[in-house]
Design goal:
The chain is mainly beta and 237 residues long. It folds into two domains: 102 residues, Beta Barrel (Virus Head Decoration Protein, Chain: A), CATH 2.40.300; 100 residues. Helix content is 4%, strand content 32%. The protein has one helix and 18 strands. The strands form five sheets. The chain has a five-stranded antiparallel sheet with strand order 1-16-14-3-4, with no helix packed on it. Strands 6, 7, 8, 11 and 12 form a five-stranded antiparallel sheet that branches. The protein is elongated.
């Protein structure tokens, strides 16, 4: 018997991520390239968990962890030590309402989400508050993985300090992730697979590539809004 390729199911297998049984009878046999996964990240408990997002590695035809193209990150920085006033941000031709010189990250996010071309969930802001700490804006939702236009800032209404200025820089370009196939979601690991017992870099597994998935219960988060590559095959709930 060839033991180099095997799939094992366990009593701890949690398939609560399955939204329905539809499609489970069509789970396809695949080969996992164990060397492509990271211990403690993709199998933190000694096994590949059911529901793990997978992608097909172009060069080998084997499967590894899904690694979505990153959402673009832009950083909004205020210099010159203003003590009052406001500034605005412009994204793809749309300009925000006035943003306070000492705005928190949540205030910046709210201002951006009020634009007609940004829906709630399209951006998340962190860092701050201004002016002492920069605010980072990460594009997600409908802009996930896209190389979006860089925002511009108008700082003429800031007061106090010494020539206060707002600058925007792109710290992570959208769509700058891997181009080896792992940027395309292929489906989800149907049954848990033991990792510590593996003696080769290949192991057989089952891929669920058609069905209903409860995104919030997946072992690794997947932004369902950005997964056009599984449209018509996987329904996210």
């Amino acid at each position: 018997m060839d033991l180099s390729m095997r799939t094992e199911n366990f009593s701890f297998d949690d398939q609560s991520w399955l939204g329905s049984a539809h499609g489970t009878d069509a789970a396809r046999t695949i080969t996992l390239d164990v060397s492509a996964f990271t211990a403690g990240v993709h199998y933190p408990n000694g096994y590949f968990p059911s529901g793990l997002p997978l992608a097909k590695i172009t060069a080998s035809g084997k499967y590894g962890p899904y690694a979505a193209n990153p959402g673009e990150v832009q950083t909004v920085t205020i210099t010159g030590g203003p003590t009052g006033g406001t500034y605005t941000l412009t994204f793809d031709g749309e300009t925000t309402a006035a943003i306070a010189y000492n705005a928190t990250a949540s205030a910046v996010q709210t201002a951006l989400e009020a634009l007609s071309n940004i829906e709630p969930g399209d951006v998340t802001a962190a860092g701050g508050p201004h002016p002492g700490t920069a605010v980072t804006v990460t594009f997600a939702g409908g802009y996930l993985g896209e190389n979006v236009p860089q925002m511009s800032a108008a700082s003429g209404s800031l007061t106090g300090g010494t020539t206060p200025t707002v600058t925007v820089t792109t710290t992570t370009g959208g769509g700058s992730g891997s181009a080896d196939g792992t940027e395309m979601l292929a489906g989800f690991l149907f049954c848990a697979v033991d990792a510590p017992a593996l003696t080769t870099t290949d192991v057989g597994a089952a891929l669920l590539e058609h069905g209903r998935v409860i995104a919030s219960k997946l072992p690794i988060a997947v932004d369902a809004a950005g997964q056009a590559d599984v449209a018509g095959r996987i329904i996210f709930a």
